[in-house]
Structures are given as C-alpha cells and as structure tokens.
Design a protein that fits this description.
Length: 139
C-alpha cells in the first residue's frame, strides 16, 4: 500500500512537471516584401519546337459539311418516327400486322442506316468543293 501511494504521488508530480514544460515558445515571424509579378507570354511549344503564334484557325468542317450533317440527323429522326407507334386500339385483341408491319421492321431501319451513311459522308466530304480543281491547276 505504501508502494502504491508513492507511485501515485510520482504520477501526480510528473503531470505537474509536464504542465510546467509545456509552455509554448514564441515563434519568430518573418515578414518578407513581395515582389510585383509581371505577366509573361505563353511559352508553350508545339510539335515542331517553335513557340506558338496566334493564327487564324478555320473550322474543321465547312458549310457544305454542316448541311449534310443536318440532313443526316433529319433522316435519322424520320426513321425513328417511322418506327414509333404500334399501339393497339383494343388491349384484348392482338394484331401482329400493326407491330410487325413492313414499315417498322424494314423501312424504318433502312431509313436510319441511310441517315447514318449520310453522316459519315458529311464527315469525309471536302469542305471546299473546288479543291479538285485547285489540285489540277497546281499540277
């Protein structure tokens, strides 16, 4: 029992000494003067290693391409409209001709495929229709 009293007293004393040691020290604060930052020009380099220069970039597609793209989207939309529908007037009567008719199974998918083909053509067609004439003149 005497041993536990001494141990308890030592624990209390060590906590008091820890409190005395834990005084926070003052930190030094260094104030530096900030330099003015001036904006710099872009130094990014392209594949050739030269710096970029502002240039007039043209669109990838021309007016002709966008017209074909709009027509392709319109034809795809028409195919979707041809495929829609098929509701029965009477839910108790089954008419396979309404759902499995030639319009929904043959015509609409073909119209959608034609629209997709027109989209592919619109991507690959030259934006300048006179490019063949210019190439022949250059040769």
């Amino acid at each position: 029992m005497i041993y536990t009293k001494k141990l308890f007293k030592n624990i209390i004393m060590s906590k008091k000494s820890d409190k005395k040691k834990s005084n926070p020290t003052k930190k030094k604060v260094v104030i530096s003067q900030k330099k003015k930052v001036t904006p710099t020009t872009s130094r990014s380099r392209g594949f050739s290693g030269s710096t970029r220069e502002p240039s007039n970039t043209a669109f990838v597609f021309g007016k002709k391409n966008y017209i074909f793209m709009a027509a392709g989207v319109g034809i795809i939309f028409l195919g979707m409209l041809l495929m829609s529908g098929g509701g029965m007037d009477d839910p108790n009567v089954w008419e396979p001709e309404v759902i499995y008719g030639w319009r929904r199974t043959l015509l609409a998918p073909l119209v959608i495929l034609v629209g997709l083909g027109l989209e592919i053509y619109a991507i690959f067609v030259d934006k300048d229709s006179n490019s063949v004439v210019k190439a022949n003149e250059a040769a």
